[in-house]
């Protein structure tokens, strides 16, 4: 009797654990994904719903309606006629198609577990997240029409790698070439933030990244006032999300609440800063705590400097004078 009971217990454990583990792994942010990183104000579920509505609206404008696989769309002519006559059947078929596409990971947008509080990651398929986010912000900036309540910032993620210094340096060496390797050149700034990560020091990452950009072309210069390009580096746990964007200052650091406000006058500031101070200043507008632990380092800028340089020499760092 006892042997039979023990056998049942072992069987339950055997069949129960792997199923839960598989679901967790399939829905987490992982290396190799592309998508959109969204920060919100405490309500992640509502943020996800808002993100789906906003992204689908603008994606249909850019890429047309979402298409399903031929197998999902296929069916006999009789079924199609029945669906046309019966609205309930048509709705049921559409829901079935959406569920099948979600299971296969083929949907245009799919919410994933980001690994940080108040941060939602929407995985994208068959589209350019940078182009889509820029299109959204461009429209909001032009129309000044507020379309979200809980979404704060929307950052494209065009590449991901392991968040360890050697992996990041190797990956970014190839990733940044189209924008910064000679003959290409640009003014730039670096916006870095780490969440739930203790193995990346902000100043070290920025210094290494600026040196890498300077090595690609010495004519690349740091500009915190009005850079042509902004290198966004977001580290969450052991995943590093990166992208290179334009109009980061114009679109209020990609803050959807701030971008719909009336444009303010020019804000005078220093022209350039050395590599160690290449990071962007703290985010415009309030942003809640976004971590699940105590290891977060905020994105607030380090000591500003007034020295000029191309982000490629250590002399610029030594001669820099911190601003008060």
UniProtKB/TrEMBL annotation:
It comes from the Eukaryota. The keyword RNA-binding applies. Keywords: RNA-binding. Residues 139-246 form the THUMP domain. Residues 289-299 have a biased composition (Basic and acidic residues). One of its GO terms (molecular function) is RNA binding. SMART domains: THUMP. InterPro entries: THUMP_dom (IPR004114), THUMPD1-like (IPR040183). GO terms for biological process: tRNA modification. Residues 75-88 have a biased composition (Acidic residues). Residues 65-88, 261-324 are annotated as: Disordered. PANTHER family: THUMP DOMAIN CONTAINING PROTEIN 1-RELATED, THUMP DOMAIN-CONTAINING PROTEIN 1. Belongs to the THUMPD1 family. Functions as a tRNA-binding adapter to mediate NAT10-dependent tRNA acetylation modifying cytidine to N4-acetylcytidine (ac4C). Interacts with NAT10. Binds tRNA. This is THUMP domain-containing protein 1. The lineage of its organism: Eukaryota, Metazoa, Chordata, Craniata, Vertebrata.
């Amino acid at each position: 009797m006892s042997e039979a009971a023990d056998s049942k217990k072992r069987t339950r454990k055997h069949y129960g654990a792997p199923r839960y583990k598989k679901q967790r792994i399939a829905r987490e942010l992982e290396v190799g994904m592309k998508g959109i990183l969204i920060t919100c104000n405490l309500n992640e579920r509502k943020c996800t719903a808002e993100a789906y509505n906003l992204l689908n609206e603008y994606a249909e404008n850019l890429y047309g309606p979402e298409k399903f696989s031929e197998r999902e769309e296929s069916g006999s002519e009789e079924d199609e006629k029945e669906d046309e006559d019966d609205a309930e059947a048509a709705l049921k078929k559409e829901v079935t198609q959406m569920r099948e596409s979600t299971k296969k990971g083929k949907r245009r947008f799919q919410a994933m577990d980001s690994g940080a509080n108040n941060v939602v990651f929407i995985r994208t398929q068959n589209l350019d997240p940078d182009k889509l986010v820029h299109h959204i912000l461009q429209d909001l900036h032009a129309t000044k029409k507020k379309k979200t309540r809980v979404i704060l910032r929307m950052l494209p993620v065009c590449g991901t790698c392991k968040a360890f210094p050697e992996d990041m340096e190797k990956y970014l060496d190839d990733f940044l070439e189209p924008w910064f390797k000679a003959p290409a050149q640009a003014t730039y700034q670096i916006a870095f933030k780490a969440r739930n990560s203790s193995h990346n020091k902000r100043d070290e990452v920025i210094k290494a990244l600026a040196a890498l950009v300077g090595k690609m072309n010495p004519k690349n210069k740091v500009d915190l006032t009005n850079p042509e390009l902004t290198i966004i580096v977001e580290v969450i746990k052991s995943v590093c999300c990166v992208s290179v964007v334009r109009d980061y200052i114009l679109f209020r650091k990609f803050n959807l609440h701030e971008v719909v406000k009336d444009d303010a006058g020019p804000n005078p500031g220093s022209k350039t800063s050395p590599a160690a101070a290449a990071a962007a200043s703290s985010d415009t507008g309030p942003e809640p705590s976004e971590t699940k632990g105590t290891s977060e380092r905020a994105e607030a800028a380090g000591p500003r400097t007034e020295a000029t340089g191309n982000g490629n020499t250590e002399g610029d760092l030594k001669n820099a004078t911190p601003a008060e």
